[in-house]
Design brief:
mainly beta, 7-stranded mixed beta sheet, 4-stranded antiparallel beta sheet, 11 strands
């Protein structure tokens, strides 16, 4: 397993941007598919985005498609989530996760999870 730590959350006005980072420890980061999830107050955790180990393929929830971009830098053991055109409904705690493949992540299954970072978007 890898240990994951998210950062980059904060408070932003609607229409603004944030970039989240997910730093992984261990030398096996590049062998994992990675994903982002979020949980808003009173709601279940939902899938946001996923990226294959190579970074070639990416997947997004319909609610963020065209606004969010997931990427990774295997040399830095880090995954990113660039969030543009943020909306109040994007307010949530954002988590990163690692899994064997993106199909698992898209079903909400992860081998390792970070502790989360809060994103708050004001209207």
């Amino acid at each position: 397993q890898v240990q994951l730590v998210e950062s980059g959350g904060g408070f932003v006005q609607a229409g603004g941007s944030l970039r989240l980072s997910c730093a992984a420890s261990g030398r096996t980061f590049s062998s994992y598919a990675m994903g982002w999830f979020r949980m808003a107050p009173g709601k279940e955790r939902e899938f946001v985005a996923a990226i294959t180990w190579s970074g070639v393929m990416t997947y997004y929830a319909d609610s963020v498609k065209g606004r969010f971009t997931v990427s990774r830098d295997n040399a830095k053991n880090t995954m990113y989530l660039q969030m543009n055109s943020l909306k109040p409904e994007d307010t949530a705690v954002y988590y990163c996760a690692a899994a064997g493949d993106t199909a698992l992540l898209r079903r909400g299954v992860g081998d390792s999870w970070g502790q989360g970072t809060q994103v708050t978007v004001s209207s």
